[in-house]
Amino acid sequence: MKTLSVCLILSASLMPAQEADRMSIPLTDPSKPATIKVEMMNGDITVRGYNGREVIIESKAVAERNFRRKRQSAAELEGLKRIDVGGTAFDVEERDNVVTVKNGMMMGGGSNITLQVPVASTLRLKTMTGTLSVDGVKGEVEANSMNGEVRITNTEGSVLAHSLNGKVSVALNRVDEKPMAFSTMNGDIDITLPSDTKARFKLKNDHGDVYSDFEMKLESTPKVEGGSRRDDGKYKVKYDRTVYGTVNGGGPEISFTTLNGQIKIRQKK
Fold it and tell me: Which of 4, 66, 205, 258 is most deeply buried (CB count within 10 A of its CB)?
């Protein structure tokens, strides 16, 4: 077992805007697939698959968000200039082909991070505020953003993608036999799948429409679940807006869920 740990500290004020820190992380066994785990508080995460044997990380500090700065009157700041002492600390660890990247407490700003990973890598990505972008990997992908878009293209493994406030767009070159799920509370879901995809679609959209160019056989399912009498005497009935449908004879379940937005399911041309 081999462990590699690196701590990187970025300063938004001291680094020229065009420069980025770059490091290469060797894997314990490059002949086997890697798992990449990235957790960010503030910043974009971009991952690209490549035909290499290491994980290459580039990180670039970004200026502090304006909404985080305290508003001061001109009189209070007369004769003074702002000195940014903030930055973002990163911890990078590799153990048994698992590469973990985490940033510490936000100190005035955030950082955008770009990773080049071997194409067979599995990804576990999470950010509080930022966009998640993935391109050209064949392993499984889990992507979660609280405030930002999720964009995944040219992938071949199963995908679980969620954004609380942002669009989820995914284009897969191949669909395996595992279930997948795409969800957002406030945003559209736009998914492109191979035309020969065999799946059972689970569709739920509370305040929007669903569009698809797949020939879908809708299932007849009860919309009203069993009612119940509450303590105050009122009788409550739950109405389920979920719709199920099969394409190409059915297969693993693929779930599409949004509260406020549209769902678009396209065939790959």
Answer: 258
The pair of structure tokens assigned to 234 is: 């009122």
What whole-number distance in Å separates Cα of residue 119 and Cα of residue 100? 17
Indicate the burial class of 83 (C-beta count within 10 angstroms; 0-12, 13-18, 19 or more): exposed
Question: What is the token pair recorded at 256?
Answer: 């599409």
DSSP 179-234: -EEEEEEES-EEEEE-TT--EEEEEEEEES-EEE-S--EE----SBPPPEE-TTS-
How do residues 38-91 score in pLDDT, each as one tens digit? 998 888 999 999 999 999 999 887 655 443 445 556 667 676 655 554 455 678
> What letter would DSSP give residue 107?
B
| Whether the predicted model's global pTM rises above the 0.85 cut | no
Report the b/e string of 37-75 with b at 16+ CB within 10 A: bbbbbbbbbbbbbeeeebbebebbbbebeeeeeeeeeee
**CB within 8 Å of 34: residues ≥ 6 apart:** 27, 55, 97, 98, 99, 117, 118, 120, 121, 122
